[in-house]
Design a protein that fits this description.
The chain is of the alpha/beta class and 244 residues long. The protein is built from eight helices and eleven strands.
């Protein structure tokens, strides 16, 4: 594994009397895609917010680079906003108000982000005309335009059909290969195992991290989700997870 670009140590979060998780360690490396998986209510979104710095943990600390982007792709875009405008807006949010004019380097960054996410041809098209997968990629492009070194993304495949799930996950995998550290909360275990270099399984207040073939073992998954889960490898070597 490459040297960590972001590391959380001894992290704990509670809401009132409810302890969500405690004493968690997690590290993200350049060029790797990590899938964050676990049952509803386990604290995946809370962990993403803590790592991004938008939520303060009750315990522990995070060492992070300057450029960390948290993307919640469930946010709706106004129907007339274009991918290029969204990316420009996210850049503007990171600047002081007296520097709001877009400079040539920022326009170049927007163009490059749209190219990397396959949206160059749709850059000036209104959100209302984009597919669900293209909307998800527009949010990812906006984070990249701000030159994020770490991309934290919450449920990028939610409400997408299989075609667009694959489209978005392939985009994230490609971005990881260009040097971005990606952590994505994903519900589909089989897709997580197929696309992620590593997996972080959050359940019962604890986190288990490692390669998919190590973490996705039937006993671990069954305990985490409260149902019997079987796993096997398909002919191409991908892990398939099936509830019983």
């Amino acid at each position: 594994m490459n040297a960590p670009v972001l590391a959380g140590r001894g992290l704990g979060v509670r809401y009132g009397a409810r302890l969500v998780f405690d004493d968690l360690d997690i590290a993200l490396a350049d060029g790797q895609m990590t899938a964050l998986v676990g049952p509803n209510g386990a604290g995946k979104s809370s962990l993403l917010r803590v790592l991004a710095g938008t939520q303060k943990p009750n315990a522990g600390s995070v060492d992070r680079p300057e450029r960390v982007a948290l993307v919640a792709t469930s946010l709706a875009l106004p129907p007339d906003v274009t991918p290029a405008q969204l990316a420009g807006y996210v850049i503007a949010l990171r600047k002081p108000w007296w520097q709001l004019r877009t400079d040539p380097s920022e326009r170049t960054a927007v163009d490059a982000a749209l190219e990397r996410t396959g949206l160059r041809e749709r850059a000036e098209d209104a959100a209302a005309t984009l597919s669900a997968g293209e909307l998800q990629r527009a949010w990812i492009a906006a984070a990249l335009a701000a030159q994020a070194r770490v991309l934290l993304i919450d449920e990028p495949t939610t409400h997408l059909d299989l075609r667009y799930q694959l489209e978005v996950l392939r985009t994230l995998k490609t971005l990881a290969r260009t040097g971005v550290a990606v952590l994505a909360a994903i519900h589909d275990l089989t897709l997580a195992a197929r696309f992620a270099d590593s997996v972080a399984l959050l359940a019962g207040g604890a986190l288990e991290c490692g390669p998919p073939h190590q973490v996705f073992r039937s006993p671990s998954l069954s305990r985490a989700f409260g149902v019997e889960v079987t796993t096997h490898e398909d002919p191409e070597g991908y892990i398939v997870c099936t509830p019983r």
